[in-house]
Amino acid sequence: MHGTLPLLKTTEFPVLHRRSLEILQVNLGYKCNQTCVHCHVNAGPARTEVMDSETLALIPQVLAERDLHTLDLTGGAPELHEGFRGLVRKVRAQGCKVIDRCNLTILSEPGQEGLAVFLADQQVEVVASLPCYSLDNVDRQRGKGTFDKSIRALQKLNELGYGKPGSGLTLNLVYNPQGASLPPNQDALQADYQRELYKHFGIVFNQLFTITNMPIQRFGSTLISKGQFNDYMDLLKTNFAAANLDTVMCLNLVSVDWQGYLYDCDFNQLLELPLSGQTEGQKRPHLRELLKQDLNSQPIRVADHCYGCTAGQGSSCGGALKEESAAV
After folding, report:
1. Per the omega criterion (within 30 degrees of 0), is the bond before 76 cis?
2. pTM of the complete model beyond 0.85
3. Is residue 325 pLDDT above 50, yes or no?
4. Which pairing describes strands 16-17 and 299-300: parallel, antiparallel, or unpaired?
5. Which H, E and C letters describe the chain, residue by residue?
6. Nearest Cα to Cα of residue 201 among 130, 151, 134, 146
7. In 10 A of CB 198, how many CB atoms?
8. What are phi and psi of 267, to 5 degrees?
9. What are phi and psi of 70, to 5 degrees?
């Protein structure tokens, strides 16, 4: 696989500083039941990296000590971690919101038969990846049979109340472009998803998040192999919108890898870019250090991939940052 970091380090991206920390985004490991082309984590069934129990136990402590309101769980498939359910129970008992970044097909995996009911019982917010509302496009990107499994999973979540008014159970979907292009307008695409999924499958959901593919890991390597990397970076930079800088996710979030080390965002984590002020070879900041100190006002490490979060409508873990942004 081609490495993209050497192509991204030199940058003219604007300087950013973290505001008050609100969200702890934790990657529980890279093991996944799927292998997706756009995956910036390079996750898959053969990956063995998983967070140990000692590090896992630090998560509720840090949330309480730093008075953080949200735990955002990612992977791989975070649900495959054997401590996933215990962690969710403990954090919910503390009154924190929990987000599960779910690939939907995990709900039909052996041993996960009760997962949907568990998520509903714990009132976990589900952010589910569904790259299109058509079978051909989804199966092309995520593997044959993925679309049908995803639809059955969404119907199961709907049966439990997810996505329905007044249920208190939030179901958001995620769209990634098929290739080297920017996502379309989020509001317009959400209307298409809502119409088509309800018409054909009776499925409802709360919001659609459009997320720009990052030129790193598996997707970045594919761009290099196809000779499209420079053109894609030009696309991101040409569509840079300065207004998006005020709402990028790294301003109030810190990313934690499966070993407990801290990064400014999930993308920096996968590029192994240390927190700003840290140098290569220096001891990396760890989750346990958040028990004693915060990261407020510290500079954020940026590189050329950051243009992916600020191009066009902007992009973050919560979808587009603006309804519409003109290029600057």
Report:
1. yes
2. yes
3. no
4. antiparallel
5. CCCCHHHHCCCCCCCEECCCCCEEEEECECECCCCCCCCCCCCECCCCCECCHHHHHHHHHHHHHCCCCEEEEECCCHHHCCCHHHHHHHHHHCCCEEEEEECCHHHHCCCCCCHHHHHHHCCCEEEEECCCCCHHHHHHHHCCCHHHHHHHHHHHHHHCCCCCCCCCCCEEEEECCCCCCCCCCHHHHHHHHHHHHHHHHCCCCCEEEECCCCCCHHHHHHHHHCCCHHHHHHHHHHCECHHHHHCCHHHCEEEECCCCEEECCHHHHHHCCCCCCCCCCCCCCEHHHHHCCCCCCCEECCCHHHHHHHECCCCCCCCCCCCCCCCC
6. 151
7. 12
8. -70, -40
9. -140, 135
19-228+248-294 is classed CATH 1.20.1250.20? no
CA distance 267 to 218: 12
For 45-81, write each residue's pLDDT tens digit: 778 899 999 999 999 999 999 999 999 999 889 999 9
pLDDT 10s digits, 209-246: 988 989 988 889 889 999 999 999 999 999 999 999 99
Q: Whose structure tokens read 């990064």?
A: 263
Task: Return d(Cα 204, Cα 253) in angstroms, integer.
Answer: 29
pLDDT at 295: 85
Interatomic CA distance for residues 217 and 35, integer angstroms? 13
Question: Where do the domains of the chain lie?
Answer: 19-228+248-294
The phi, psi pair for 216, rounded to 5°, reads -135, 165
Amino acid letter, 97? K
Cβ neighbours around 181 below 10 Å, total: 11
**Contact, 97 vs 71, CB < 8 A?**
yes
**Per-residue pLDDT at 165:** 94
Residue type, 230: N
Token digits for 237?
């930079």
